[in-house]
Structure formats: C-alpha cells, structure tokens
Specification:
alpha/beta, five-stranded mixed β-sheet, two-stranded antiparallel ribbon, 5 helices, globular
C-alpha cells in the first residue's frame, strides 16, 4: 500500500502500544505497563486525529510539531474528535515519558508507539526506519484526511493548523 487517502478505510489488524496515564505513575521516572491498543477496532467507533512524528524528544518533533497539538487539543476535540494520538516509532515507555515531559495528564492526548513501525511501513510512510511525519483524520473507520510531509523536518500538512482546517 502506498499511503492513505480520503475515502479509504482504516486498515484492519493495526495495533499500537501505549502506557495509559495514571496519577500513581504521574512522575516522568515512574513506569506503567504497556498495553496493546487495537486501533482498527477502536477507530471503527470514534473520530480520531492521529499525527505521527519520526521520534519523541527530537528537536523538530518537540519544538515544531507537538506544541501545536498541545495548544489546540481543546479546539480539535470541540470539532467532535474523540481521540488525539501522537504516534512514533519509540517504545511505549519513551512515548509515555514524552507526554509527561510536556505536561500531558489524562487522556486528552495519547502517546502511542507504532510497534516495529508496522503501520507506517504498511502504508509506506516512513522516514528510514522511523515513522514518517504525517497526519490522519479518521471518522468511524474512514479516512477523511491523510497527508505526509514531503520535506524532512517540515511541519505543514501534518501540523495542528492543517488538521483543524480539515475538521
């Protein structure tokens, strides 16, 4: 498969991994247990914004990509979005720490891993061995918006402003 486009169905068999936030494990040095998240099943009944980055704690991802979603998560959710997900190739503990390092508590913004970069490889949107930089809007299993950055380090079609404009 080469990318996704509006009108496509979200693929079957997509499983991500994450560490759910809990108050008991709110410290950045506290580790919870990773859980599998059946994205194909869960997305079938939800409206989801998913944005992927090449890596947690990297300069472009931390300084230019993630902040737009943190600043706009309420606006995004006010458009009927059930879930906002940050996705990267990093393991679930790193993704959990990245969320905590950015002051994210609860489930306003979920930090998930594309285990083995399986999903990104399936759709052909990688950056070498990492997840590519892209954004998806999925509404009850149907792709409404799917765009991948064409230039490394660029945040335009995958950024929060572009996503908001399509909601």
């Amino acid at each position: 498969m080469s990318g996704l486009k509006a009108g496509d169905s979200f693929p079957e068999g997509v499983v991500f991994s994450y560490v759910p936030y809990t108050e008991e494990k709110s410290s950045i040095t506290s580790c919870g247990f990773p859980q599998n998240y059946d994205a194909s099943k869960e997305f079938a009944s939800k409206k989801v914004v998913l944005f992927a980055v090449p890596g947690a704690f990297t300069p472009g991802c931390s300084a230019r990509h993630l902040p737009g979603f943190i600043d706009n998560v309420s606006k995004i959710k006010s458009k009927g979005v059930d879930l906002v997900i940050a996705l990267a190739y990093n393991d679930a503990w790193v993704m959990s720490a990245w969320g905590k390092a950015n002051g994210i508590k609860g489930d306003d913004l979920l930090f998930m891993t594309d285990t083995g970069v399986n999903f990104s490889k399936t759709i052909g949107w990688t950056a070498g061995e990492r997840t590519g930089r892209y954004a998806l809007i999925i509404d009850h299993g149907k792709i409404l918006y799917a765009e991948k950055e064409s230039t490394p380090g660029e945040v335009s079609v995958s950024g929060a402003d572009a996503v908001l404009a399509k909601l």
